[in-house]
């Protein structure tokens, strides 16, 4: 018995050594990959702006490289926080470090293959946004829709890849996904489209340089709303055709799509969960209360039980009618008087 214990102890110790060595090996590989990915992101950001010199003002200015015509391009007179490209091609990263552009060190063939690696496999022109798991190819949105519109391909699962472009300018990378508009925007277009009127109160989800959404929805001032959102099946490893719309984790998509930030704030703290039988329920992290009834729907019922219904009809900046309740502050695009 004692020999068996000694043998088991030796085996456990050997297993622990093997596991420790393997963990260290995997950790080093992951670290190098993360380091490489971060450098690629910094390089991509630094390529966005090019440094030029103004003879008139005797100072440097920075032009957005996405525009071919410099007269129409966005111009900054302060150093871009994302970094920039000097006139001699040297990249100044957001960290302040200066490096040679890796593209300039490649041959023409290597540069061409590098550019094609992010392009659609069909048209080889547009940036790929979806990777089909069954086809093993990457597609832009248009080519994916046309090639997977019928037959067995309709059921192919896909994963979202690449950065998300701004829905407004369709050139710059999006940094925010508006919950109410259900569209992505770059920083500049967000300021233009959401700088005034009712849109100024829209909530959003931050988007990183990989096109991944932060599941925590933010209020207009950048603070957390306490609500959680996700992009749907494709964000977690696959999707079906038509799964491009932003799905809501705490409230249903119609509620968030039609309510403004005042209504979202009124159900702050509720989180959608699933019980042991697979049924959804909601828990309030602030009060500790749990319920199997959707808080957003219950809120609408409570608002409709009052003696007075002080609803007033208005029109937004696009001319679409909406209704506002002066007592509760609720706003909706669905007629509550019907």
From TrEMBL:
<dbReference type="InterPro" id="IPR000315">
    <property type="entry name" value="Znf_B-box"/>
</dbReference>
<protein>
    <recommendedName>
        <fullName>B box-type domain-containing protein</fullName>
    </recommendedName>
</protein>
<feature type="region of interest" description="Disordered">
    <location>
        <begin position="219"/>
        <end position="249"/>
    </location>
</feature>
<feature type="domain" description="WW">
    <location>
        <begin position="305"/>
        <end position="338"/>
    </location>
</feature>
<keyword id="KW-0479">Metal-binding</keyword>
<feature type="domain" description="B box-type">
    <location>
        <begin position="115"/>
        <end position="161"/>
    </location>
</feature>
<dbReference type="InterPro" id="IPR036020">
    <property type="entry name" value="WW_dom_sf"/>
</dbReference>
<dbReference type="Pfam" id="PF22586">
    <property type="entry name" value="ANCHR-like_BBOX"/>
</dbReference>
<feature type="domain" description="WW">
    <location>
        <begin position="269"/>
        <end position="297"/>
    </location>
</feature>
<dbReference type="GO" id="GO:0008270">
    <property type="term" value="F:zinc ion binding"/>
</dbReference>
<dbReference type="InterPro" id="IPR001202">
    <property type="entry name" value="WW_dom"/>
</dbReference>
<keyword id="KW-0863">Zinc-finger</keyword>
<keyword id="KW-0862">Zinc</keyword>
<feature type="domain" description="B box-type">
    <location>
        <begin position="161"/>
        <end position="207"/>
    </location>
</feature>
């Amino acid at each position: 018995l004692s020999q068996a214990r000694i043998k088991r102890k030796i085996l456990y110790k050997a297993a622990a050594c093997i596991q420790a060595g393997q963990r260290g090996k995997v950790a080093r590989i992951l670290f190098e990959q993360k380091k490489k990915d971060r450098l690629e992101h910094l390089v991509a950001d630094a390529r966005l702006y090019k440094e030029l010199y103004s003879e008139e003002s005797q100072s440097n200015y920075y032009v957005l490289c996405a525009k071919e015509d410099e007269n129409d391009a966005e111009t900054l007179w302060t150093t871009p926080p994302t970094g920039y490209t000097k006139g001699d091609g040297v990249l100044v990263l957001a960290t302040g470090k200066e490096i040679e552009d890796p593209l300039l060190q490649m041959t023409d063939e290597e540069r061409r293959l590098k550019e094609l690696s992010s392009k659609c496999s069909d048209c080889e022109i547009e940036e790929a946004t979806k990777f089909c798991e069954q086809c093993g190819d990457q597609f832009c949105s248009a080519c994916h829709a046309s090639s997977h519109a019928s037959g067995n391909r309709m059921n192919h699962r896909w994963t979202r890849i690449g950065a998300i472009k701004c829905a407004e300018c369709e050139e710059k990378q999006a940094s925010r996904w508006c919950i109410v508009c259900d569209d992505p925007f770059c920083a500049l277009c967000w300021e233009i489209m959401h700088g005034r009127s009712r849109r100024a109160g829209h909530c959003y989800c931050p988007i990183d340089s990989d096109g991944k959404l932060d599941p925590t929805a933010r209020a207009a001032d950048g603070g957390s709303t306490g609500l959680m959102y996700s992009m749907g099946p494709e964000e977690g490893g696959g999707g079906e055709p038509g799964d491009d719309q932003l799905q809501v984790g705490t409230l249903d998509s119609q509620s968030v799509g039609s309510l403004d930030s005042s209504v979202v704030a009124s159900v702050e703290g509720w989180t959608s969960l699933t019980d042991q039988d697979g049924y959804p329920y909601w828990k309030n992290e602030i009060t500790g209360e749990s319920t199997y009834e959707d808080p957003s729907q219950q809120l609408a019922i409570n608002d409709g039980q009052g003696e007075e219904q002080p609803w007033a009809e208005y029109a937004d900046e696009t001319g679409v009618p909406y209704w506002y309740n002066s007592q509760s502050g609720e706003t909706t695009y669905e007629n509550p008087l019907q």
